[in-house]
Amino acid sequence: MDNPRQLALDLLGRVANSTSYVNLLLPKELVKRDWSDADKGLVQELTYGVLRWQLQYNLIIDNFTAGKTLSQNLRSAIQLGLHQLFRMRIPTHAAINESVDLVKGFENSAAGLANAVLRNAERAGLETLLKELCKNKDEYSTLSIRYSHPLWIVTGMLSALDLDGRKDQLESLLAANNEVPAVNLIALTEQAAARLDDSGVERGEVSPRGFLAKGNLTAVLSDSEVRVQDQGSQLVALAFAEIAPSGGNWLDMCSGPGGKSAVLERQLSPTGRLTCYEPNAKRAKLVESALVAGGSSVVEIKNGQDAPALAFEAVLLDAPCAGLGSLRRKPESRWSKAPEQLPGLIKLQADLVDAAVKTLKPGGYLLYATCSPLVIETNAQIRAALDRHSDLELLDLVPILKSISPDLELNQNRKTVQLWPHLHKTDAMFMALLQKKAEH
User: Fold this and answer.
1) End-to-end CA distance of the chain
2) Of 16, 46, 85, 147, which one is least surrounded by beta carbons within 10 A?
3) How far apart are CA 99 and CA 270, in angstroms?
4) Which of 363, 380, 360 is nearest to 430 (CA)?
């Protein structure tokens, strides 16, 4: 049986049992099938929706199956039914019957249980169930359930917002993480931007090169100078190009899959040179394919920690991180990431910062970026770097971002920059600009 619900069930199983992301798996599956746009949209909403609301749906299932152990597949099939009942315009009988039919396909003996859970949930209603689940819970545990975020992520986001003077915006941020993001495009050149304008593609709000894609992407992406890229990531690359000497040697230290590298190489002058490091061979190939064929940019399969001393005028370190800034696009990150992973990431980030400082020439610039707003990965990491390196200075990045995007709402009382999904409609990118002091 090959239909949207079955494919959604299969994808949920693959995500649960591997480190795969649905945004990479789904397109590969859809291209194999000659389905209508409606069916493609259905499998996308089912899969992403269940991944977003998994915590909430699991608690509802547990509420009706106390003392029972459910297989992963059974749990996923019931979650698909709950999502259709509570957050999609699917008739009740179809939502329940189709989900029960899924269960019959792999665990016939559990079909009655699935039917009972879905009918009881539908009878109770979502709001009643949530009130029951949140009874006697503290404020942040309640937000965790209502917005389907693990508690540690809720409190981590709160700390990051507090640092940015936005502590009262926690609920807005959690709600934004559950929204379906617009597909963002970047025009790599002014000519490509003009072509998109001529085609009537809507401009993005925060990046001067950003556009919003609607409908079928085939036509716009047939232009080799148009790529899919979040506007927050675009601003990272454009900010780097704004401060780095255009005729110098630039290093993209953790370049895979190459989206920012593609922006950077087009901002260099003819005398400039871009080197891209990527330790993973498959991702290094993606970087190569993102760059201009036959151009002067170089891709090396190499760890950033192995960068030579005093080799570059500017380094972009888009550091490996918890990735909690892209929960709209990768909803499964909330369940695949854990606080126990943070110490290893923090050490890796610090090692890469140290390597970046070493490879910079005196007077050179380091732009440190993460797709995570967690303070331990952002401002705390920068403070620690300044403590370790007396020859490093933190520069004010806010005016540079404002010169690129004048209407960008930023906290003017800090030198680092934090973007937010609920404010900027971007991933929650963090940026800090450091300069290695010139020798006297």
Assistant:
1) 73
2) 16
3) 59
4) 380
